[in-house]
Amino acid sequence: MTAAPLSAPQPTTTQQTQPTEQTQPPTGQTQRTPRFGVNYTPSAGWFHHWLDFDLDQVRADLDSIAALGLDHVRVFPLWPLFQPNRTLIRPRAVEQLVALADAAAERGLDVNVDGLQGHLSSFDFQPAWVSTWHRRNMFTDPDVVAGEAEYLRTLAAALADRPNFLGMTLGNETNQFSGDPHPDPDRITPAEAGAWLDRLLDACEQGAPGKLHLHCSYDAAWYLDDHPFTPAHAARYGAATAIHSWVFNGTQQRYGSDSAAVAHHAEYMIELSKAWAAEAHRPVWLQEVGAPQPHIPADRAADFTRATVANALDCPDLWGVTWWCSHDVSKDLADFPELEYSLGLLTNSREPKPAGLELAKIVGEVRETWTPPAPRTVGLVVDLPEEVTVRATCAPGGRYYEAFMRLLAQGARPTAVLAALSGDKNHLTARGITEVLAVEDVWS
After folding, report:
1. Which pLDDT value is given to residue 386?
2. What are the chain's domains?
3. Which residues contact 254 (CB under 8 A, 6 or more apart)?
4. pLDDT tens across 262-271, in order?
5. Which of 2, 60, 161, 245 is deepest in the core (most CB within 10 A)?
6. Do residues 114 and 167 make contact, with C-beta atoms less than 8 angstroms apart?
């Protein structure tokens, strides 16, 4: 597996002596050391632990996470348990979430909270008031959306005064409810998806002003034709762009476990997202990435971890890396896809696994030696409209995807630029792009 150096080279020249407001990076985003965290999966009971919440067990889990040198956790309330009725948000459940956040603070861990769970590890968790006899579209029904907004506002407000509260993520990959291959999707248009994002992000801001509120999508937003959540939604709504990079999406199956495409997949998604970003230095959060077996053999998990993180760190404007996940899913629990049982950095007995030890080593190295990566000077043109419906060219096996990987193999450090912006000198200068290539140029 190929990896960039953990401390990337510095730019040899400054881009502008007096950056404009448009090109100035957000304060503290691009120059500080990237954050390292983990998606918290409780060692006992998985996310069903909310039914039998045990703060001592949570504290022990968080101790094992902090021992790896990580600085934050992403946590997952189960929506039906927290809001079992549209007008009932259980105070005791909210208190337990706050207790978890406070326990994390005691261990030096910041907390991001996903609200609408939603979808986790192949299981859907939706309250009864949006299903069966009460079946309503979760994205467009005005009563449902009002209930979702109040739920998110309530969670954000409960944590707003906690210094270790990073902000809200609307929910985990909620875009999967909006279209195929979901077995019972809530069909919407891209415009309706945008309106939903606006409404719910505003609710988070009302509850906790000024925090890092965002949303996340699985990779259908980037790769699947006609999916209603688009790259522009991912890269323009919320305070940061969230990337969920999974090589079981066809990357490993097409190219092989030891391929450059596997090692660079997260890096590719990070840079692809920048084509649609309205700000030149919008922060990008690699919010989910993991080493799924058998796509990544157990004896290669540490190598995959190092290569993936090193290549991601070579991307300017990376906010941080949050691994999936903290602890393995217990084999006592039934019906998970087999790969879900072994994704943890730690075992159910809270012992670090090879990938966990490797990530801990990387974290220590980065904090000792970090320098921000140089700008990526080669812009590979994404010849798609801003409001894209056809996007398979960007998916594994697509012509754009393979051109990007070919440039990497040639030693270049490409980024992505939309065709509509490829002749915009101010845009290119703000991003440090000095050479623009069409896909055809790569193959000529």
Report:
1. 76
2. 35-374 (3.20.20.80), 375-444 (no CATH)
3. 261, 396, 397
4. 999 999 999 9
5. 245
6. no
